[in-house]
Write a structure and sequence with these properties.
Layout lengths: L5 H12 L8 E2 H7 L6 H9 L12 E2 L12 H7 L12 H4 L4
This protein binds a DNA duplex (13 and 13 nucleotides) through helix 2, helix 3 and strand 2.
DNA sequence: ATTTTGACACTCT
DNA sequence: CAGAGTGCCAAAA
């Protein structure tokens, strides 16, 4: 298998995001690790920013390692709350309770 | 080839 | 808990 990047990486990342169960959240770093690129969390964020172009994915279930929501994704909180995610405050989900463990 | 950018992670204060 | 500083690395400029 050749080097995996852009289009292949996008497909891989999105397929992983698709696996996050309802009521759970994952971090960018976690997704990066599952995609076998543990140091590319930032790339995961960039891909999710464009994910709409590729289809419907539960990208609202991805937050940073502190549980902070994505900037400029104003419907994220309500989507998470609608599936039962609890928040520590306005900007941070309760990762302790809801982090997706494989 | 070099610099900047990014929905990040980690450590230290 | 909030900032600052550092590390990270592919993509785009």
């Amino acid at each position: 298998m050749g080097k995996v990047l852009d289009d292949d990486l996008i497909f891989l990342v999105l397929s992983i995001v698709e696996e996050i169960p309802e009521g759970k959240v994952a971090t960018y770093g976690q997704i990066a690790g599952l995609a076998d690129r543990p140091n590319n969390a930032r790339l995961v964020g960039k891909i999710l920013g464009m994910s709409e172009y590729y289809g419907e994915y539960p990208c609202h279930r991805v937050v940073n390692h502190n549980g902070r929501l994505a900037p400029n994704f104003h419907t994220q909180k309500e989507k998470l709350e609608s599936e039962g995610i609890k928040f520590k405050n306005d900007e941070h989900v309760d990762l302790k309770k809801h982090k997706w463990i494989i």
